[in-house]
Specification:
This protein is of the alpha+beta class. It has 5 helices and 12 strands.
Length: about 240
């Protein structure tokens, strides 16, 4: 009986040592890597009767670090079509190069520039082709259609798109959309007010982006305004908060 009790005591000691060893073990260190990074920024597009406006900021950041304060998110594709991409800058550069190369191929084959409707469909096809390892970009395509009317297209990362009267994308999009709903769509307004003309829309977009820069740390530094009409694309620049 004594030897049996001693064996039990030794077994209990060994179990206690084993449990103590397990509890005192350091948790394994995990090294994670992601192929994607959101570099922030905000853009918005508005379609008018015979014009379209695209506004975007120029800040490119990562976390709490600002990589550059003067990096455009916008690329001119044709004389009547431009694109802005928020999300991962590296993917945006690659996507814009791909689109410009395809447009050059189209011009060589058809002896004319593609319409904004054709570019909108092509962009959707390019994004959907990469759906299993998508471009981490959230795009706004703006231009004039064949009838001379403003056209704005909103995209998700894998090519689902919609033609809309106005839209926004990027880190400050939730702050932009409610203002555009109120001032352009005039939702829930009981007093009828006249529609905004082109200069008023441009000023509205400037005010909205300036307001977003006050609340969103990923939006700021400078804003770019692109106005597309029958005469082509005209761009201007204005200051935002630098902090």
């Amino acid at each position: 009986f004594g030897s049996s009790l001693q064996a039990r005591q030794q077994h209990s000691i060994r179990c206690g040592q084993a449990l103590s060893f397990l509890f005192n073990m350091q948790a394994p260190m995990e090294h994670r890597w992601s192929p994607y990074e959101d570099n922030g920024g905000t853009c918005m597009g508005v379609a008018g009767e015979d014009y379209a406006v695209l506004v975007a900021d120029t800040r490119m950041s990562q976390g709490y670090s600002i990589h550059t304060r003067d990096n455009s998110k916008v690329t001119k594709l044709t004389d009547k079509c431009i694109i802005a991409s928020c999300g991962m800058k590296a993917d945006a550069i690659t996507l814009h190069r791909m689109l410009k190369a395809r447009i050059v191929m189209y011009e060589h084959k058809h002896r004319r520039q593609p319409s904004v409707v054709a570019i909108a469909q092509m962009l959707s096809t390019v994004l959907y082709y990469k759906r299993f390892f998508p471009y981490y970009t959230f795009n706004v395509l703006v231009g004039l259609d064949d009838e001379g009317k403003g056209a704005v297209y909103h995209y998700d990362a894998i090519g689902s798109f919609e033609r809309v009267p106005y839209t926004t994308s990027g880190s400050g999009s939730s702050l932009v959309m409610s203002v555009l709903d109120c001032q352009l769509q005039k939702l829930n307004q009981t007093v009828k007010t006249p529609d905004l003309d082109k200069p008023q829309v441009v000023e509205l977009c400037k005010d909205v982006l300036s307001s977003v820069g006050e609340r969103d740390i990923y939006t700021g530094d400078y804003g770019e305004i692109f106005v597309i009409d029958a005469g082509g694309v005209v761009s201007t620049k204005f200051d935002l908060k630098l902090d």
